[in-house]
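INTERNAL AUDIT FORM
Audit reference: QA-55
Scope: verify that the stored structure record matches its stored sequence.
Auditor: D.O.
Record contents follow.
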Amino acid sequence: MNRAIPHELLTSIQKSGLHKPDHCAFVLDFSGVPATRSRTVFCSFLRYFEYGCAQNLTSRLLSDHAISLLMPLDQREIMSAFIDQLNFFLLSRRYGAMDVRVFDLNHEASEFAICCVEYMRATTRETAEDFLDFYQAPPKSAEQLGQLVEIERIVGQADMSMHIRMQPIWLLQSGLSPEWFGEEFWVSMAAMEEITGKDILRDDWMFARFTELLDNRVLSHITKEPYSGDAAQFLNLNPVAVVSANFRRMVKTLPARQLRKLTVEISHLMWRNNPKVRKGIQNSFDRYGIKLAFDQISIQKLPVVSPAEIDIANYLKLNVFDLGGEEIEAILRDCSEELIRKIVFCRCETMEQIQAGVNAGVKYFQGYGMAKFLNNPDAIESVLGRGAANNIAPMRFSRKRL
């Protein structure tokens, strides 16, 4: 390799603060820790160092498997001991080990610059940078990092077909028979402890990381599922999964007709809490023709959804679980036709809720109460009108289709 540093790269490195007198730099290469091929695990390691022992530390991504840590020289021994302890922990658990290089920037600034450039030339940092745009608290300890590595191994080997759940979404219109519109896919919450054998649901940090790992596996699974080409597919994902390498791989793998039927559901709160990545996700969806749905919106909170959010969303999934028909109709009474066309009623439990939605012009419905409704011709004709049940065969819901 030509070890000469292009002037533009050297200038960029100097401006970024990589050359600092009276400072030292550690370059950590995680290639020897297989679990860090997962962006979730890799970024968790980076956060662990950022919030670890050293003061006045500056971290930078060099590639999708390497980072640099800059700090004052007086922090060198502290960081060296910190890294040695973590490497000993990793080796003792047979997780692998980090490769470590240390530079004194008073004397080895050029060597450090060359090292950085070689990493930056060889690989891309884009996906990892996207991950780091999400707010992510650090792991509490090396033991928690170790638990994450174990879970990544287990999830990576799990048969996700055993844990994927699907729920139909129905198209209901007054005067017409019910139609199957599509299905939502997600990972069963109960499957989490089944897969890991660990009690992680009470730990907010581990629960969030585990969700990211599972959602990435869902993306892999969806490419192997048979697809008829008729039904809409709703993928319920953590937005971190949307900027993952698996998401990009899925987009390249799925046929165009399936992509046109694909909707990605993202929690409305998560969307609001991650402003740095919103535009990138939206541009990606527009480029591939993927639709966006905001999920986990209580119908009472519909007025707080901004006009800009309504404009970019293809669907708004409203939870109507604990409301009666009159309350639902009162909330939707002043909504525009354009907004009503985007609404999906979720967690429908009663005929009263379905009736209120149809009266307001809502077309899309899902929930545990739909099976009972669709297997009752009298209920169908009561809500949709005479004759609406004529073409309905008895509905059958499999173990995984809820």
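Auditor finding: record pair retrieved intact. Confidence is low (pLDDT under 50) at residues 395-402.
Action required: none
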